[in-house]
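Re: the request from the purification team.
They wanted to know what the chain is likely to look like in 3D before they choose a buffer screen. I agreed to run a prediction and write the result into the notebook, where they can find it.
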Amino acid sequence: MHIPDGFLDAKTWLGAAALSGAAVGYGLKKTGEALQDRQIPVLGVLGAFIFAAQMVNFPVGGGTSGHLLGAALATALLGPWSATLILTTVLIIQAIFFADGGITALGANVLNMAVIAPMAAHCVYRLLGGVRPLSVFLGSWCSVIAAATATALELALAGAVPLPAVLTAMVGWHLLIGIGEGLVTCAVVAFVSRSGLLPSASPYENGEGKIA
């Protein structure tokens, strides 16, 4: 799903960078208000897990790739804005040190995977009344589809690939990838909940999982 350099024109990557920059700035403010000191180690562990999961890529056509996302997992455990910061950190490291996603496309990749994906999962959790197995699975699946759709739209807007071709490739493959994402996320959330690794309840159980 990482868009490489050269696939987006200036108007697209500048516009995406402006949107993602504003979202990350707001996420920093909201996370600073809500995050407890005891949750900071969890944030680091989640970032490492998501980094490792995203490094397993496979081509899906249209000039991009598919992989597990981790946005719904971080959102379920720490809320949407903390998830945005975790995913943004992962994407920056991948782009700078591993050439996984372009530098000029970093704003678009952050917008797709660190902003849109967590917000899609967040909306499902709120709509279904909390973090339960069904909502975790659907939130994970929707987060993957939302990020893939945004990626396809940006590539088409930039004129890199015709919209029907890239939308079919991205969304078609990620309909299947989203199932795997949902199963993995359900398993990890259940493990973390049973293990007591997270020192507080899910943000969706104490009202902190709000967008604003």
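For the purification team: The beta strands are 58-61, 64-66.
Please add any questions underneath this entry.
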